[in-house]
Structure formats: C-alpha cells, structure tokens
Amino acid sequence: MGLPRIGMHLSTSGGVWRAAERARELGANTFQIFSASPRMWRASMPEAADCKKLQALRRELDCTPMAIHVSYLVNLCSQSEEVRKKSVAAFRGEVERALALGAEYLVLHPGSWRGLTREEGLRLAAESIAEAVEGLQLRGSGKAKPRLRVLIENTAGAEFSLGGSFEQVAELIGRLKTVLPVGACLDTCHCHVAGYDLVSEAGYEETVGQIAATIGLDTVRVWHVNDAKAARGSKLDRHQHIGEGTIGLEAFGRLLNDPRFAHCAFIAETPVDEPGDDVKNLRALKRLLRTSQNQVTAVNSLA
C-alpha cells in the first residue's frame, strides 16, 4: 500500500502549476484547486505550457491525485432555465479545463432544487450533467483508467440542497454511471452538520455502514477533512481548524486510519485565518496517522 494521500485546497496564484509547488512546500502529496475564479461564470482555458508544467511537477513530486472543485455558481438543477443553461456551459468549461490540466477528479455540488420537487431536482441535475459532457472523452480506451472522474459531493443538508443525504448522492451517481466516470466526495463537516455521527466510535461505524449500503465504500474517492464550527445536525456549513471544532481529533484519527478508506485522498478545506494555518492543519492530520507500534502519534510530538 502506498503512502496515505493527505493535502489541502491550494491557491493557483502566479500560475496553476504553483499549486504543486505549494503542495511540496507544505508537505502535501495531494491537493485541490479551482481551475478558475469560483465567482465568475466564464473562464478561459489555461495555457498549454502551464498545463504541461503542472503535470510534470506532479509526476516529479508524486503528488496525486489532483482534484478540481467546480465553481460555486454552478446550479445544475436550478428551476431557472437561464441559470441552468449558464450552469451547463460553465460545468462543461470545468470539465474541459480539468482534462487539459490532467486532473483525476472534478468535485461537484449538484445545486439547489428550490421551487421544484426533490425528484425533479435529481432528474434535472442528471440531465444537465449529461448535456454538459456530451461529446467529451472522459473515459480511456479499452481497460484504461478514466481520464477524469466527476465526484458528487454531499452537502450540509440545507432544505433544498441536493446531496444532503447519502441516499441522494447515491441516486444521482446511479443515474450518471452510464454517462461518465463518476464517484463520491464526502465532506466530514457536511456529514456532521447533516446529522451523521462521525464522533462516537459506535456512531462512526453506523455512518460507515450507511455509506456502504448507499454510495458504496469503493465509490468514495476523496474525503474533504474539515472540522465543524456548528453542532451535529445544525445544517450550518462552517469549517473549522482540525481538532478545534465539534468533530474533534479522535474522529479524524479514526477516519484517516480506517483501511476501508485507504484508497481515498484526504484533502482539507480548513480556514486560513492567519499565516501558517494551512501548515498547522496539514500537520494536525499527519500526526494522527498511526505509527508502526499501532499508536496514534501524539498531537504535540511534531515541532
């Protein structure tokens, strides 16, 4: 088994390839980026030279997988036809940039079905994704691995947000399996505030059982590892530094060392309130990896 993949969401300021350099500086071996501003509908393709430089750096550093997070503006199940069409076009651009950059994963929040029924939202999201990727080559030839896998991320459980339960994530994945390579990205903060128990040992096992019964453990490719500012079941999506929120260090240690998720990348999206917070959170996660004596490394043991 290879090294555990632990990293951060990183800035591409100064060039998209700079994210790989930042990963090296932090000690991360996986990372996530935005391929363009997450607050803009239209974005240009990255320069070919930058794509090649990023891919070369990742190979040199063994920094994989790389995930790209889709713009927050995209709402593929919007009741507004104008917004939905803009979202389809924007999502297609995200896929095209992810392919050009050589990303393994593209993480998507399906959107809000406000004004529709949940069933209509699921149907519209699946149809919109299929429309967006039409004609794009996401699968390798023969038995080759997918060129790009779209990961449906669970949400914090807000009333009209699609993906607030494992069942909704699983249903959307099921509708998309014949259309494109697809999987799941689970966020610890979203799970927690949506009401799933990751904190107690018994609750964690129950939650993993629910994931297995709905999404499937192998379908989960990325965990967003974020502590939570709000209480379990609150539906409030507020990320906190690792070990300083309502989830706590023990739960993250349990997840990081769970052999059932050894195939996953663990990527933090924790706040950067002060310089050095990204290093602090990455180190907090790495300290939780079990040592050869099967002990959880003490949190204060790393200078």
From TrEMBL:
It is an enzyme of class 3 (hydrolase). InterPro entries: AP_endonuc_2 (IPR001719), AP_endonuc_F2_Zn_BS (IPR018246), Xyl_isomerase-like_sf (IPR036237), Xyl_isomerase-like_TIM-brl (IPR013022). Keywords: DNA damage, DNA repair, Endonuclease, Hydrolase, Metal-binding, Nuclease, Zinc. Zn(2+) 1 binds at H69, H109, E153. The keyword Electron transport does not apply. Belongs to the AP endonuclease 2 family. It catalyses: Endonucleolytic cleavage to 5'-phosphooligonucleotide end-products. PROSITE patterns: AP_NUCLEASE_F2_3, AP_NUCLEASE_F2_4. GO terms for molecular function: deoxyribonuclease IV (phage-T4-induced) activity; DNA binding; DNA-(apurinic or apyrimidinic site) endonuclease activity; phosphoric diester hydrolase activity; zinc ion binding. Binds 3 Zn(2+) ions. Endonuclease IV plays a role in DNA repair. It cleaves phosphodiester bonds at apurinic or apyrimidinic (AP) sites, generating a 3'-hydroxyl group and a 5'-terminal sugar phosphate. The keyword Zinc applies. This is Probable endonuclease 4. It comes from the Bacteria. SMART domains: AP2Ec. Residues 21-284 form the Xylose isomerase-like TIM barrel domain. Its EC number is 3.1.21.2. Zn(2+) 3 binds at H190, D237, H239. Zn(2+) 2 binds at E153, D187, H224, E269. Its cofactor is Zn(2+). Gene3D superfamilies: Divalent-metal-dependent TIM barrel enzymes. Pfam families: AP_endonuc_2. GO terms for biological process: base-excision repair.
